[in-house]
Amino acid sequence: MATTPTTIHIRDSKTPTTPHLTLAPSAWAEFLPYVAESGASAR
Description:
There is one protein chain. The chain has about 45 residues and is of the alpha+beta class. The protein is built from 1 helix and 3 strands; from the N terminus they run βββα. The protein has a 3-stranded antiparallel sheet. The longest helix is centred in the C-terminal third of the chain and has 14 residues, at about 25-40. It is flat.
């Protein structure tokens, strides 16, 4: 994940040549509570 003032860039570190996901900071902020609530963890 990389942050800039206007976007959040996310890629799969195991396959870095595949396309990445770009989100607005507001979309990322809305997503984070969902992940925290689901109990998901990084593997």
